[in-house]
Amino acid sequence: MSSPAVIDLLGVLAYGELVAFERTAADASLAPTLADKAALAEMAAAEFAHYEQLSAHLTSLGSDPIVAMQPFVSALDQFHNTLTPRDWLEGLLKAYVGDGIANDFYREISSHMDSATATLVSEVLSDVGHADFAIERIRDAITQDPKVSGRLALWGRRLMGEMISQATLVAASRPALQELFLRPPEGEVNMTATELTAMVNRLTVGHAKRMDVLGLAS
Amino acid sequence: MSSPAVIDLLGVLAYGELVAFERTAADASLAPTLADKAALAEMAAAEFAHYEQLSAHLTSLGSDPIVAMQPFVSALDQFHNTLTPRDWLEGLLKAYVGDGIANDFYREISSHMDSATATLVSEVLSDVGHADFAIERIRDAITQDPKVSGRLALWGRRLMGEMISQATLVAASRPALQELFLRPPEGEVNMTATELTAMVNRLTVGHAKRMDVLGLAS
């Protein structure tokens, strides 16, 4: 029997991969060249494969993947509907920056779990080539037209703000996840509000580094 | 060295699968339930796997898949942009009826080719479960609200008309494919206009059968 927190984590990750698949496929349809379209479609298929791994693992734990994903549908859909990219570059930045923050966040959570879960999570969070692809295309676009960097920097800030607020809402609505958050690291007495703030700070630092790679203010 | 007609056929099929992947993923985002979404995403991933098979085969023949697909991009994109489903049911009908016509058409063409090509084509045209899924969902919807059948019948007729006209345009723009069309079957002297008309008639009959399965007038 797995802990409710493990099922919650695998459920939110599985739905996240399913949505990532859909969004990457939608970005593929905006691709300026056929080669870019094919490359994005390949990444989308890899994201679907991650979804299948998580789904199979949930089933092997005796949990229905659909039931496990359901509690996270409305929060993730709302996040994505609020932040629909207006064009190809915004889609790429969303994938790079959004997946970056999400992955850092999920790794923080999974570090509190059993090693089998942590290994699977680390595996499905491995980048499918999306980050390098996005970095290269965004840098090229900025070189060609430096004006786009202001708009993209603003978009990056909106993504960061919205993700922090959604993550807080999701965690707050799931007692099992919340408890996990508040569970102190091995050898410590309790996880304080200071620890939580420290985690948000670590996520912010990671975000700033990714924006910096693009030469964008965070 | 493969014939230009083989490269053309594999190119149009590869682009067709890439677009099918994108459209199915877009339909997944319209799915009314999480189970339907997951089922459609799985079909999209299977369509991408077909694309990969075709792409790998083109590469093995010494042909760049991107170059092979390029001539068919604008015709297929135009077809899909003209006929964007307005909702979930129209998306399902388009997949069922559109893939049905396309598959009958490609099978007719591939029957004129070497057996290795014909085998690969038959393999990538194998249904990924899309047809049964669509039939079941559309029948349920008609049972629940018989009024939708008029709208869907009209949509099916538009799809058929547009596909025949696009297929004619594509064939007309590619001398290699055109020649193949006009190449007489083994033992006959030439393929006449009557033969072409007969093929369109066979496609129409196949279409009518599929609409009939749904209880829709064609």
TrEMBL record, chains A, B:
Pfam families membership: MiaE_2 (PF13794)
Q: Which residues form the Ferritin-like domain?
A: 5-181
Q: What organism, scientifically named, is this protein from?
A: freshwater metagenome
Could you tell me which SUPFAM superfamilies the record lists for this protein?
Ferritin-like
Q: Which CDD domains match?
A: Ferritin_like (cd00657)
Protein name in the entry? Unannotated protein
